Amino acid sequence: MTPVGDGFDAPPPVGPHDLLDASADAVALVSAAGKVIGWTRGAEALLGYSSAQVVGRPAAELLAMPGDPVRVARITERCRAGMGWSGRVAVWRDSAPVEVSLRVSGSFHIGEDECFLISARPERQQWTMGESVLDGFLTRSPVGMAVMDLEMRYVWVNDTLERFGGVPREQRLGRRLSDLLPGLQGETLEGVMRKVLTTGVPVTDYEYMGWSWADPHRQHAYSTSFFPLVDANDSVTGLCYMVMDVTERWNARRLLSLVSEAGTSIGRTLDVMRTAQELADFTVPRFADFVIVDLLEPVLSGEGQGTWLPDAGPAPARPVMRRAGMSSVRPGCPEAVARTGDKVDFVPPPHDANLLVNGEPIFIPVLDPSDPLWITEQPARTASIREFGLHSLISVPMRARNTVLGLATFARSVNPTSFQQDDVLLARELVARAALCVDNARRYTREHTAAVTLQRSLLPHALTGGTALEVASQYLPADASGGVGGDWFDVIPLSGSRVGLVVGDVVGHGITAAATMGRLRTAVQTLADMDLPPDELLAHLDDLVLRLSEESTTDPADQTATAFLGATCLYAVYDPVTQRCTLARAGHPPPVVVTPDGQFSFPELPAGPPLGLGSMAFEATEIELPEYSIFGLYTDGLVEGTDRDIESGMSRLGDLLCSTGSDLETLCANAVRRLVPAPQPDDVALLLARAHALGPDQVASWDVPLDPAAVSDVRAAATRQVETWSCRELAMTTELIVSELVTNAIRYASGPVRLRLLRDARLTCEVADGSSTAPRLRHARSMDEGGRGLFLVAQLSHRWGARYTPGGKIIWAEQELP
Questions:
Q1: What is the pTM of this model?
Q2: pLDDT digits (tens, 9 = 90+) for 521-543
Q3: Closest C-alpha to 619, from 632, 634, 603
Q4: What Gene3D superfamilies does the annotation carry (predicted)?
């Protein structure tokens, strides 16, 4: 047997049955005319014919269904195709198809006849029960499958793929995928197929969104895998692809992705309005074309616990809400419906406000503006629905922590796909997350408002520096992100026409810091009334802060207790007689001094530790304040700014305070506005004072000898001075006060003794001596001869007291000027 055209001589003739008996396959010798010459036992077993029945008969008749001339002609043509042809055909046995693999494996001559050797091997059969399991798997598999030729035309499609696409099998076969999916989607998929055919590398789990002819109103997600088909010679002969509808999985993944992204995009601030707007901005256009968020008025104001609780009974038919956030893909849509901040009462009919309390989300997949219910109850909105083409709607009540907050509504117009039931779940989850953020912001707003109210109530409402100082102040609470702090200031009138100035900053924010600030301010006023020097006052204040810190940590089980972290403070005392200022600070920024010639400086003071450490002593420093100088106390929030450079901020503050021609109030307001143009997360406080001096015509003093006889002379001199000041009405009481104070100094104290009268906002009488023993007010009995001196002084004066000096003490008494 010699292959045709190989150039070798033919071997000795061999009988056909000798040639075929060695074959284990079903083998036949077929002449060029197509008639069977020889037939193996395997062929007899395969088709059920004996050799006597087939020899001499056309082979095509044996392989084709009887009476099918088209199939006979096709098989005959393939047999004549010669050596190398192979393929799968269905042969018939007992009127049933049997799949076999045919191959023309040789050609040779027997005598003058050209013959072909055709081998057949039955395909692997599966166990069947009425029909082929393999056929059932391929055609009815839940996975859509198709076979494409090298030109990417459909050759075979199973039932599942036909059902996925909604295109009959007859319309697919012989056509390309781009013919069925026009546009970018079809071109993209064909590009993937072309890559597989070119490289031979499969592509698995390629996902894309597509429209289904069976469901034209909803996009589906598909996962597709492409595999090359190769023959026995490893040549690519076509392409097989499998596709699964993964819409449910894709929707679940999209829901999780959106919810996860919403967690980082919604609720970034503790502002109710901004949080509502973040919900609207996030969902347009990802989820909807038009979104509105309406919140109840008490929620926006931060008052109360919300309008209703689920157990609070029925709600009114028209809830009072305000538009808190909205967004749209159409530029004119939001303005045409309502503006942010406007009052609204939108609840989709036929529902009322009880929907907000215990209702489920409203799902209207097809919004019909011709619905009589909408036309009757919402005529204006019905017109907007028609104008902007809103065709699908979801409204979700906003509730969090058993509190009703408002209503969020999602609508589609440009997107032709209506909302599905899965979208309701997504809307509910997004609104739930936003509602929790809104409730957090509402609670924080309420606490912030309470803290601001407490802070302002504890700060001085009216400041007065008498004739010694002209004062002005500015206070700005921190924004909602930082919370109200504990910045405070005060102006305290002291004896001898002196004035105390204080500014402080409590560490921390919120109500606790504001309450602590109030306690410290009260303590400073009490200590200042005792006429303590600045360094001693800060030492006592430091002890108080230590006790407060211990109180906050006494009960570890109290979860509501907030540790008190300390405070900073600066206290100064200005004397208009000497025009000098004594001051000390505890970890606070130094004051600013602007001289009348427009030069500013920051006096170098011992820093001192912040209050609450109790580790170091405080030191006082005395500076001179020329008349009309400006003395400024401030907190770090004023000078830190956005760059957190305190020194730069202090320099800018000094430049701003050097402006001439401005009254103190305007100067103070301009400095704060320029240094803090926008809200910041720290309190801001600025206290300015313009110094004035008491002239020689307002002060009179006398040295008093340690002789009781000198009392009458001093008393007469004081009376004349009071009359000279046009205060004749106070001459008698001044005479009695001077007599008692000077007599006590001569009798019980040591020298030197000095009397001084000051005419300022009040008439002040001061008697200084060299003793550090404080006088004590006594209530003499009816039979006592003495002990009534200080009692008379207390009755005749507006107030009286004592203060210590480095050389002794001063007893003073003030009278109101007529």
A1: 0.62
A2: 999 999 998 889 999 999 999 98
A3: 603
A4: 3.30.450.40, Histidine kinase-like ATPase, C-terminal domain, PAS domain, PPM-type phosphatase domain
